[in-house]
Amino acid sequence: MVLVPSIPVTQDPAAAADVAAARDGETQLSKFSQTLQHHQQQQQARVASSGNKEADTVDHEKTVGHAERSQWLTTGLEPPSTWREVADYLRGFGLPSGRELSSLNKKPVTQRVACFLKAMFPVLQWCRSYKLTQFKNDLMSGLTLASLCIPQSIGYATLAKLDPQYGLYTSVVPPLIYAVMGTSKELAIGPVAVVSMLISSMVSRIVNPGAEPALYRNLVLTATFFAGVFQAVSGLLRLGFLVDFLSHAALVGFMAGAAVIIGFQQLKGLLGITHFTNRTDVVSVVKSVCRSFHHDSWNPYNFLLGSAFLSFILITRFLGRRNKKFFFLAAISPLISVILATVLVFVTRADEHGVKIIKHIKGGLNPISAQQLQFTSPYIGEVARVGLIIGAVALTEAMAVGRSFAAIKGYHLDGNKEMVAMGFTNIIGSITSCYTATGSFSRTAVNFSAGCETPVSNIVMAITVLMALQLFTRLLYYTPTAILASIILAALPGLIDLHEAYHIWKVDKMDFLACIGAFVGVLFVSVEIGLLVAVTVSFLKIILISIQPGIETLGRLPGTDMFCNVDQYPMAIMIPGVMVVRFKSSLLCFANANFIRERIMEWIGRGDEGERKIDDFQTTQLIILDLSNLMSIDTSGIASLEELHKNLVSLGVEMAIVNPKWQVSHKLRLTNLMSKIGGKVFLTIKDAIDACPNAKLASI
Amino acid sequence: MVLVPSIPVTQDPAAAADVAAARDGETQLSKFSQTLQHHQQQQQARVASSGNKEADTVDHEKTVGHAERSQWLTTGLEPPSTWREVADYLRGFGLPSGRELSSLNKKPVTQRVACFLKAMFPVLQWCRSYKLTQFKNDLMSGLTLASLCIPQSIGYATLAKLDPQYGLYTSVVPPLIYAVMGTSKELAIGPVAVVSMLISSMVSRIVNPGAEPALYRNLVLTATFFAGVFQAVSGLLRLGFLVDFLSHAALVGFMAGAAVIIGFQQLKGLLGITHFTNRTDVVSVVKSVCRSFHHDSWNPYNFLLGSAFLSFILITRFLGRRNKKFFFLAAISPLISVILATVLVFVTRADEHGVKIIKHIKGGLNPISAQQLQFTSPYIGEVARVGLIIGAVALTEAMAVGRSFAAIKGYHLDGNKEMVAMGFTNIIGSITSCYTATGSFSRTAVNFSAGCETPVSNIVMAITVLMALQLFTRLLYYTPTAILASIILAALPGLIDLHEAYHIWKVDKMDFLACIGAFVGVLFVSVEIGLLVAVTVSFLKIILISIQPGIETLGRLPGTDMFCNVDQYPMAIMIPGVMVVRFKSSLLCFANANFIRERIMEWIGRGDEGERKIDDFQTTQLIILDLSNLMSIDTSGIASLEELHKNLVSLGVEMAIVNPKWQVSHKLRLTNLMSKIGGKVFLTIKDAIDACPNAKLASI
């Protein structure tokens, strides 16, 4: 780090001259590049006109020497400015791009409207070619889906600390909206475990769901509204990439942690515990369970019932995996369990012996809840924050699920359209008494396996759930809550992906750290901390990789003019008297510039590096810095290159720079470094060796 | 982001087969590479033995085809593991390296001790060849330094809210310690403005210096001790690079912000205000000044005196810059001001008319303060944190100043030795009643200009200050405080480097943002926030550059086999039917992989990219991904490459990968991606074009 001294009482003429030279040099250089601009433009025009007919240029090619090539580099065009880069970047995902708009403008109004509608509602595209055979498959998979969805929805609603009917409501409107707006064919929309747990853990911190159930419910609906707005706006602004900021590894860890937590929370239902903690971390939950055991406030019948049906569901699933014949049995086993358990309780009147039952579920259509959204509540800020986090997690889950099934079927999922669809799904959901819906992991798999072909299966499921809400809610009066716990527990293993965790460990240790960080954070602290840890570790990894302060020695590969890392390619040949060095990092900046400079000096000074001790190093006469890895350089980096050059000159070693990227070469020019190192900037390493008289050329 | 589906109720045989194939493939591959290992090792041995005599390999070179080269890449050695990389990295800056130790072990004990002592105390090296002529220069510069140092030290002590003698103490012991341990020849050690301000602003937040002056002083000494320990330990562990984390741009902004704040605080002394705010931000200070004006609690005589001597100092400095003759006048003008002002006040008894004076300064040697360090205080944690921040800032300033002057004289400053020297300076300082000392910006410049040759000038200065402490402190009784404010104000312009700020703006807009962030943060919030903003922006820049989601099209440069960005090199020739694409970022990871994949698909799908519309793009038959920029790839990146390949295959376009770096090619192999894309991995773009039958080769 060198501060150019503009010190009050200094009077060193050399330093002053140096600074003045730097400033003059810059203006000189800009003139120089102006005069070259003309030549440049001519050349550009020529190449553009000759285009693909390269025969024209062959004569020219022969005459191109390293001097001219190095001039291409040192006097090239200016790279796009920072603003231009940002604008380009934004254009990439901004509102409909200029191209799209201009192609639209050429068409008549009706076509433009049709285009827009088709883009907004993919249903308009696929419904024309919809066939009866497709409907048969969709009907079958929709009914299967509904049989799984009804018990799961009731279970997830209790997980979200809402009345059971809200889970069912969430399985009616959102699937219908998604069916007309979404681009995924398999995604089963509705309440999911992780989001339910997340929403209850975050909103219960604002109000107590036990004390103020109506306010709690309204805040949940408001959070859903915000989640929808966040999703829709992100999609419309084409900010789909934001979803990617929760890395794959982090998601694996987060999902597993959430699954374990949800599993522990199900102990409440499975054991029929009355007083249970509101907190989500494992320590609190285990303490709460222990306390219940201690005070005998749990009921063995609940446990018996729950674990019996859990075994039933798991066994049918195992059979279904082994033999395709049993697949439908596996899919509807939760519904069978509910029916059997309900009948059992009704017949034996087990509820009088301490078995907890659902009791009343309010039937009928989704009530309108627009007036219940709490926009004037004092909690609005917190609720908006909750909405943001839930929206992001819900989107990430839906995209992960949707993409993996789209990849199997070989079609592409448009991230931004998906975001808009999910956003409207939740916005409309929040005004029709639905809490946050997203793509369910387990149900999407069932939908896919049952052979769904289009989003019509979602519509079939929604209508079935609606009918159940209208007709059968009274039949669920005697359904034991332990059965809901079993159904939730049965869905959890799919969220824990040990194979993938092992795969991440094998491929990248830092990624695995992010995964474990998310897992431990969710498990022992809170859901938000888990997410925070995961995102922090992921970005820390990016920083560490970008500034890793290493250098590698390059050698020429036999049969080519290419220079590669001698450790990676043991067959690479090093040239006596010449040391070719490349930075391992992609940035030469404040954080690593000094370290790298010192390392190069050390390397030269000592003349050896472990195994690869070659005596010629001690008579190194030329150091070639291959800058091709560098994406960027900052003022500290430039200062350290300058200092390196000075140090090398004092040792009698020449220094040449090879192939700086556009931004880097521009900065080297701006700061006059190119002329300070005597213009020794080349396009290729071979050119640098050819041009430096000191280097022994025998070996080339 | 793709979650490999290990979903409970799934039964898709294709997907299962896919996963199984992936796992099998890996084991197969590892066997394959084992068999190749032998061949590899042979080849390696041959190259190593032939060494520089390349004639042997010429025959072989001719026969090397692209197939063999591609095999080098696909079946190469494993890259060093993460642990190995970390170990290598640590070895680079750990305690004395193995090499150093082994060379030491060969020598007898006395030589080893001598080596160690020479390394710890550079004075042992230069004192042998010390000459009388050098001493003459050092004496002169040391006396000049003392004349500037005495008034500045008193001023900075008041800035640190300590009694004036503590500033003088800090100019006695630290320069002596540094003189025997430091490696810089010019650095003038003692109290400095920024550190004084920083220490007072941070420790006053722990205890009120007005209410508990003794405790406050003890905490300042304790913080100094911690700062010293932090510096020494960092140096001994060779963590010198930590200093670099405060980037050059951030330091420029931070210094300027601190200078402005210190300037505003001097209004207290200059206006003779009695009640002044303890806070450091500009808003509080300006409010405090306005309140004083409003209540007439300021005194115009103070202002007159202060501004008169400020003008005197500034004019002499201006003269000194213009003409070397006046340099010494400029250097001693602060001392002259003090003497004149003191005489003036003594003669006119202006202190009775409201001119504030220093009054009593305790003379004598530095008292021992070891028993005053507060290790058992309840504030220990906070004080340690303060020590850490102050230690870092003091080090950064000293290194920046030291390095810039070392660069002018053309010698090298060993960062780690400097850290150890500064550390011991402050540790010993803290037990001899000194607060944090570091290299002063303005005094180092004076020392340099006065012609110092060795650290002896620091010793001369320390002895002079010591004599002043012993003999002349009583004479300073009538020195007006306004004169101290003038002296501090006069030193500030050197901290504000507008030229450098403009330079940063020109070179890098993001760096400038860090600079401005530090400036605004220090000015309007607090010193720590300023530092935090600067560090955050600096690292945010690293992340943004590393994940910038762009791609660039490459063309062949005439006369070479090299492919470069067609925007940077307009003369580059594109090959019809082949699109060569390189990622702009150095990482293909969760944050940009999907975006980049979508961009490539968009580019191909549309067949144009703004100006460079070439019809042949629409018949692109081969996409070559040049991975040479990629330092790292994570699971998301690999998944997106796989998806890209699938999408391209469905469009009938071939995809080839060129020149993945070591880590990247290893991961591609680990995840079996290399075989999934049909083994189309090549070392050079030319090889890829040669190997793909679909590509039109006419143009090569």
UniProtKB/TrEMBL annotation, chains A, B:
NCBIfam families: sulP. SUPFAM superfamilies: SpoIIaa-like (SSF52091). It is found in: Membrane. Its main location: membrane. The keyword Transmembrane applies. The chain crosses the membrane at residues 219-239, 245-264, 301-320, 326-347, 516-540. One of its GO terms (cellular component) is membrane. Residues 53-69 have a biased composition (Basic and acidic residues). It is a multi-pass membrane protein. The gene is LOC115738883. PANTHER family: SULFATE TRANSPORTER. One of its GO terms (molecular function) is secondary active sulfate transmembrane transporter activity. Residues 588-692 form the STAS domain. It comes from Rhodamnia argentea. Keywords: Membrane, Sulfate transport, Symport, Transmembrane, Transmembrane helix, Transport. This is Low affinity sulfate transporter 3-like. Residues 33-75 are annotated as: Disordered. It comes from the Eukaryota. The keyword Membrane applies. InterPro entries: S04_transporter_CS, SLC26A/SulP_dom, SLC26A/SulP_fam, STAS_dom, STAS_dom_sf.
